[in-house]
Design brief:
The chain has three helices and five strands. With 134 residues, the protein is of the alpha+beta class. The protein has a five-stranded antiparallel β-sheet with strand order 1-2-3-5-4, with helices on one face. A hairpin with a 3-residue loop joins β1 and β2. The longest helix has 14 residues. The protein is globular, with a radius of gyration of 17 Å.
Length: 134
């Protein structure tokens, strides 16, 4: 745990939260500045700023819990979002997944998707590079 991390303080109980789920590895609670009603944060209790900082055994519950919360909330449309780094819009340096209900066009997450054209040869090189490093 990081002493100055707001999410670590929530995990320790130093800061109150509206808990939706808790286990040995995972905590889920309502976002206090939601994009829509039911916006929930799902976090590993292991502290790490980015997804790659968290050991795999501490990641295993995150998406199954997000799925269970989505079902329980009754949200028909929703986004699951996870940001890594300031350029990717990460505000809190503790890995967290957002489950954001999208009840209509104005509430929830708004996204722009600036697609790019890529040469297949360049993409194939990327595939080979990623595979070789896994």
């Amino acid at each position: 745990m990081a002493a100055n991390c707001i999410f670590c303080k929530i995990i320790k109980g130093d800061i109150p939260s509206m808990k939706v789920f808790e286990s040995d590895k995972t905590l889920a609670f309502l976002d206090i500045n939601p994009l829509s009603y039911g916006h929930t944060l799902i976090i590993p209790k292991h502290h790490g700023a980015k997804l790659t900082d968290i050991p795999e055994e501490h990641l295993t519950e995150l998406l199954p819990i997000a799925s269970r919360i989505a079902k329980a909330s009754g949200a028909e449309n929703y986004n699951v979002l996870q940001n890594n780094g300031r350029l990717a819009h990460q505000e809190v340096d503790h890995v967290h997944f957002h489950l954001i209900p999208k009840p209509n066009e104005t509430e929830g997450l708004g996204i722009k998707w600036p697609m790019q054209q890529m040469e297949k040869d360049r993409l194939q090189k990327l595939v080979e590079e990623i595979k070789s490093k896994m």
